[in-house]
């Protein structure tokens, strides 16, 4: 892996606004002429996109929690070996919409599965690859769900989970970030979009952007 290649993941509950921030970061990378690719989980490969359709289809509402884990893990294993590692080895930045932390938050905290066991499985499946920086866009669950309701005609299987599930996921993300402050950057997703975008710009283009820190709520 070339030293200048960065792997940045974006995390947060559904409806927090990740896609907009991903768009903006990729635009900055384009403007700065930094080679990069954008990917997502589940998905990012032909196999992964097929798995994504299974995981998000409401028809599979009775899917077992561990079956869910291994489907996400299979998608991730393919993505790491087919896309992420080759890009980093070529000096290309990788900007990812979710990575391992999503499994720890959604299946660990949300589904109440053993987080340590999940961490071990993911480390093995991903060749122990972790992002250099993880941007966590934190947002109140009710605010996020209202946004989803306003923009979606049909909710997917994960978005249809109960409010209590999404609250556990949010808390899980915050605990994961607290445990690794050197990797996580927390942005307040309830602030106006222009301010959130500016916070992201400041963090990644600041002379000391390699040091993760929290942008507190105003």
Say how many strands there are. Answer: 5
Name the CATH architecture.
3-Layer(aba) Sandwich
**Proportion of β residues?**
5-15%
* Helix proportion range: 40-55%
**CATH first level:** Alpha Beta
Distance between the termini: 38 Å
Order of helices and strands: EHEHHEHHEHHEH
Q: What overall form do the CA principal axes indicate?
A: globular
Write the CATH fold name.
Answer: Rossmann fold
Specify the CATH homologous superfamily: P-loop containing nucleotide triphosphate hydrolases
Give the overall pLDDT as a whole number. 89
The major beta sheet can be summarized as:
5 strands, parallel
Give the C-alpha Rg.
16 Å
Number of domains in the coordinates? Answer: 1
Structural class: alpha/beta
Low-confidence stretches: 207-218
Task: Trace the largest sheet across and list its strands.
Answer: 2-3-1-4-5
Q: Supply the number of helical segments.
A: 8
In short:
The protein is of the alpha/beta class. The chain contains eight helices and five strands, in the order βαβααβααβααβα.
Structure explained in plain terms:
- It contains eight helices and five strands, in the order βαβααβααβααβα.
- With 218 residues, the chain is of the alpha/beta class.
- The protein has a single domain, classed as Rossmann fold (3-Layer(aba) Sandwich).
- The protein has a five-stranded parallel sheet with strand order 2-3-1-4-5, with helices on both faces.
- The chain starts with 6 loop residues before the first strand and ends in a 13-residue tail after the last helix.
- The C terminus is likely disordered.
